[in-house]
Amino acid sequence: MRTIEHQIFYFPEAKTRLESLCELKFDTSINPSYFYGIAHICQYIQRLIIINVKPKYNRGIAKLVEVQKNLKYFEWNDDFDEDYFTEDPYKEIFLELEKQADVLNHLELFFLYIDSCDYYITSLQKLLPKLHKLKTLIINDFCYNNDNLSKMMIYNDLEILNIDYITAYEASIIIGNSGGRLKEVSLKPCDLLKHENKFSEVSLNFIRKIYENCLLIEYLSLVFSPTKDHFTEFEKLLRICQNLKLLLLVTSNIHTRETEEKILENGEELLKILIRSAPTNLRELRFFNDFKFSLKALEEFLEKWKGRPALSILTSDPLYNEEDYKKLINNYKDCGVIKTFRYESILDVEDLNFKI
């Protein structure tokens, strides 16, 4: 529903036609009275998708959420031009979501990076610990550090954890409290700069939390330092997590200030580990530009990958657009080792929903 003008719940047979409605997508420009009418008829909606086009509280939407008896999927997307709020558009709606905790299993929230932060953070801090049945948690902004909140986010059925700007430390807490059903863990690389004094310790713990709690993992963003201990734990993860299909590898040399030669050595070691221990389901690799591979190391890796399923590779490093690399890559495309090898923006590489 977009800018609807008719109160369709007054139409003949409206109750008969609409009471079984199971999915509804609308924007917040619609008059609140309309939602009161819909709420009177439609109480078994399973999927609500809301486009928030006005940073203003809509009481009718809160009422619609309140009366639902089987709301499993809730998606909220901010999409407005104003850069300030006159009132909190989230509070009452999120309070009603708390009451859906026994059935709600999919929560997807997209907030704009403006003055909304204080509003939705306060509401989220109250909401997230209550939603104990979640299977999918997707939030585009987790702009605060709150270890106590992470400890309260216990989701035994969680399968997808996709949160932007959460630290590896906070993610480790949530993963450790999950029920062993996680299939996707997607983080943003900017988190590497957080906990910088303890980054090595935090990233080691993150890897261990994955292979201890995520035996079913298929899609993974992995952050670590290029040290011997990290490579050892990474190889252990590969051997344990046999369902891996897509792996985004993020490393940072910011704390070690490594030379170009050492960076290439780290890349060679990574490729050797992948050849030795990569699970047979692995189909896609993504690298950030702190991982670099010499022409020789890449050729040896691709040669040894022969006989396995064709590999898709995504990188944020323009190095692989150079003529020597392009020639090598095309040769292995021709013989079926590589399905695709592309240089893309950092935003696309880090987004596991971006399809090659």
Automatic annotation (TrEMBL):
InterPro entries: LRR_dom_sf
Organism of derivation: Rhizophagus clarus
Family matches, as Gene3D superfamilies: Ribonuclease Inhibitor
Native organism taxonomy: Eukaryota, Fungi, Fungi incertae sedis, Mucoromycota, Glomeromycotina
Listed name of the protein: F-box domain-containing protein
